[in-house]
Amino acid sequence: MSKYYDNSIIPDFLKRKFNVYDRINKLGIDLGTFSENVKTLKDSEICTEIFHESGLVYLSGHGYGPGQMYDDKSRITEGQKAAEWIANSMIRRLHWAITCGGEGGDLNDVLYTVKAIGMVVSTDVAFDGAPSVMNGFSRRWQSVFGGGKGEFSKNGLDTSFSGVHARSAIGGFTGRFSIEPEIIVAIPPDLSKEIIKNRGWILPLSPEAYEKIAKK
């Protein structure tokens, strides 16, 4: 682990004993390249990540999936797969958000996961499967960062619980997708401050920060 994680206030019995990237590789999550994932703020209406000096990292939501959800087992499964795909995408985004500036941190510096929200598309007033659909996201997140519902858990237990999060899963939205999750994670404040000092608090990067980092 990095100096940031090792020096964090997380008690030793709750610190991860595994490398997050080993799990990412076993799950077949493609992290892509710098050029694919690191852009500038030119023509951007929103950002994808925000770093706060407290260590909180806010990730914007992403909508995906075959369309409206309803209470049918096969349809719920489709929604869960879409939610898992989004989790993979957010893990990739978070990797590049933390690493692209070369401050010495990576996904192993995620201390814990704070909050996830899943907005599930369904105009059926009787639909009650929003939490089930969002489980596809939460379980993939726990598979990478640790949690009793992840793919590496045994008998409901994992060696870490830093992927477990507070959560809301809400149905009733319209759209040509199935679900839009967003998430907040915590990294060491010292790492967040180094990121902000080096390149700012926002991703995509300002043109000036991008030019500096791309030259390295």
Structural commentary:
Helices cover 36% and strands 16% of the residues. A six-stranded mixed beta sheet has the order 4-3-5-2-1-6. The radius of gyration is 18 Å and the shape is globular. Helix 4 runs parallel beside helix 5 (130-145). The protein has one domain (3-214): 60s Ribosomal Protein L30, Chain: A. The protein has helices spanning 3-6, 20-27, 34-37, 73-99, 130-145, 189-199, 207-214, and strands at residues 49-51, 56-59, 112-121, 166-173, 179-186, 202-203. Helix 5 links the parallel strand 3 (112-121) and strand 4. By secondary structure, the protein is of the alpha+beta class. The chain has seven helices and six strands; from the N terminus they run αααββαβαββαβα.
Layout of SSEs?
Elements: H1 3-6, H2 20-27, H3 34-37, E1 49-51, E2 56-59, H4 73-99, E3 112-121, H5 130-145, E4 166-173, E5 179-186, H6 189-199, E6 202-203, H7 207-214
Helix pairs in contact: 4-5
Short description:
The chain is an alpha+beta fold and 216 residues long.
CATH architecture: 2-Layer Sandwich
CATH class designation: Alpha Beta
What profile does the largest beta sheet have? 6 strands, mixed
- Alpha carbon gyration radius: 18 Å
Query: What is the 3D shape?
Result: globular
Number of helices: 7
The separation of the N and C termini measures 23 Å
Mean pLDDT level = 96
* Classification by helices and strands: alpha+beta
E-strand count: 6
Largest sheet, order of strands side by side?
Answer: 4-3-5-2-1-6
Q: Looking at this structure, what is the CATH superfamily?
A: RutC-like
Number of separate structural domains: 1
